[in-house]
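Protocol step 4 of 6: record predicted structures for both targets in the notebook before any analysis. Target 1:
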Amino acid sequence: MKFGTYLPVPNHGGPMSAHLGLVLHVQEGNGGLQGWFSNPESDASSTWWVSKTGEIQNYVDTELQAWAQGAGNATYNSVETEGFTNEPLTTAQISGLAQIYAWGMSVYHWPATLSEAPGAAGFGWHGMGGMAWGNHPGCPGDIRRAQRQLVLDEVHQAPISEEDVMDIAGTPSGAGYYILKPDGAVEAFGDAVYKGGVNNAGQNQASAMIPGDTATSISVSEQGGYWVICAPSGAVYAFGGAKHYGNAV
């Protein structure tokens, strides 16, 4: 499965044997990693990379093993973060990581807990795997390791089932995100601003969808609002700074 901007790389292994959670890494550099991970000599890759501005790039399908953490490749997805060990994650990076983790909770039922040892489900860090994970005790560094809790603080603290989330969309600034529920309810996190409900059958009870419709996707406006698209009618609902120019709703 894929989440974020998909930029596939050839450096990866066989199918995952489990989905215990996410492992945090630090890039020790700046700029995207698709080029390096596409080089056979690198012998490396990660599932995701998050920039300092919160951009999410997905390099390896989440059902396949990225070459990121040795013996932990088959059981944890991985995320590289732009920057260096002596730099904290930016606010936008924290929100980008929260988007990934919320998605993983939805799809793979990752628990909203910190993992501190191989085999423990949750949000881990590269160095916790020791020699078997490539012997990188300083990755991602003490600063970023401690910030994992800030990421979880932006995510639902109760696990979300895949059936409870239709779509996740980040804000243009990259510092927040929206979750769209099947009944049309929208939840906002980070600097994302909730602008109104969609379906009167859901928790927000604002405006009714066309009978028989289901909310299917959400997209974000540069003007601070969002659109919710429904099927099978194709109806579009606009909230906040988003403007509707069509004939659906």
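Target 2:
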Amino acid sequence: MVKDMYSLRRGFYLKIRHLIFDLDGTLIHLPVNWTHVKHEVSSFLARNVDSLIQLYSEIWRNKELFKKVSDIVEKHELEATRYVKILDDAPEVLRSLKEKYSISLVTLQSKNVAERILAYMDVRELFKVIITRENVPIRSEQIRLVLKLTNFKPEETLVIGDLLNDINSALIVGCKAVLIKREWVHSSIKENPNIKVIKSLKELPYVLRDFSNS
């Protein structure tokens, strides 16, 4: 009897109930010339900027400076929304998944950009929580904030993204993760039972089945 109760509890905690999606590169492609953006930000800061992700984490607590940098980036992001490309029939995939899972979104895009893209995709109402860089621009902290706001446990949550930063951040928090290996992703990851690698969002239902059966 005790063993059966333990099995039930273990199964409950391991069951995926909550999906957290990245936006750019995962659901859509936002054609921003990031080299040009980093050059403009570098000129503004009078220092070389190799990674905006790293820069955000460095300047986040300086609210005034962060806003000025964010505004520079947002200018280019908003322009690029005119040419946004939806990947892998993402709206249809999300609507199908919404029937069984709670869905949230984390993005390093700005709130204005995210809202514009989600309105274009007609999927805004599908997401329980949406976290943008104005909330916090560090992916692991974005995931933690989503969990806090939704009351889901890390072990109930699967993070889906296209960059190793998404995957590593998910694992740091204690979530499982799926890497969508797009053509611009060249890094490989070590084999890990908490990570799956796919090439399209359309493979996600099969991955979820695998996690449920593991």
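Step 5 preliminary note on target 2. The domain at 2-30+87-213 is CATH 3.40.50.1000 (Rossmann fold). The radius of gyration is 18 Å.
Proceed to step 6 after PI sign-off.
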